[in-house]
Amino acid sequence: MYQKLDQIFMSNLVKLLVISNGHGEDIIALKVIKKLKAINPHISIVSLPLVGEGFAYVQENIPFIAPVKKMPSGGFIYMDNKQLWKDVNNGLIGLTLTQFNAVKSWAKKGGYILAVGDILPLLFAWLSRANYSFIGTAKSEYYLRDEEGFLPNISKIDRVFGSIYYPWEKWLMKDKRCFGVFPRDSITTTALQKEGISAYDFGNPMMDDLTISALPVDDEHLLRILLLPGSRLPECIDNWELILTAIDGIINSQSKDLIFITAIAPSLNLGDFTVKLENQQWQEETIKSVNIPINDRKIMLFTKRKVKLILTQNAYAQCLNYCDLSIAMAGTATEQFVGLGKPAIAFPGNGAQYNQQFAQNQSRLLGISLQLVNHPEQVAEKLQELLSQPDLWQSIAVNGKKRLGDKGAAERIAKFIIKKITPLMDNS
User: Would you say 135 and 182 are in contact if contact means Cβ atoms under 8 Å apart?
Assistant: First the structure.
């Protein structure tokens, strides 16, 4: 998938490099790339995933401009300093220098950049001296405040800065070479616009392609619970064990009919999950014994005390739409589920990503839509609490849609970028 720059610049097509730093960011970037190509096929688009091996880009045949490598931290070095040293020992510094040199070469040849994620791809874009735009997926004013003001327990330094984006980050966004900033929500867009930044409230691309035609209701009395263990190895396997502990508590305490639907990332080995199920006395059954509106011929069915649990890797949007609530230890997937107006229950794990700090931050980001508990054994009680408050469910529906925005953001961003870089190319 690695393509040399000389080969790329042999054509006269508009050339755009997309830099992203994380699996969720790769997915968001791809949504925009697909819209760019649909609107204007005469664009040469390449990528540089700074975290991981860019599995999503590989699936869509988007070439890289530099080598990529999976690091032990999975990109979450800010959560644990020990993870940073593991990455350094695994060649992080040399890899980063190689990648940055490729970005500089890209800029010298006249290419343009779309940075997706946080300050790292944004800094790469700025240092390259290219013209660039930025999709800010990692930060939201909701981490600090809601529409009423600052949240409790916000640090003094954050109150002094008054924004989730620090002055040096805003400086990078104010640069004259930055032709557009696309924050993840309206509250953040408004804050950046007040700072004189060319920020546009186009919505959050992560909510695109999730809405599907109405699914048939197989049983209105059935409580459909989505399980989201995350996508980063080995942490997601540890998360899975904790989630299984949580659902044991639900089965023991809940009188409603239940079905659990597990959305597993296509890049993961399903066997790692089935082994844990079997270790906890779940038994595999023939899929003919269950009738659910999920189109995946490879789904697996397990049962325990007459409760069904489904594993699927190929029906993500259907899973999100089918289920009523989720038990979630994921990043992007949790946010997407909440964005559909549904509640999620979460608890911190022991890995580099979904630890105590991450869970607390996600709780601030998503507000009442994410019901946070400390341990998996507390999930059953929290579920019963939710079921007893229908008014809270309605508030959660409104809150989730407000915080994640409407669909169509990728197309709006793509149209803006094309409008901006085509004149730039014509005048270069």
Answer: yes
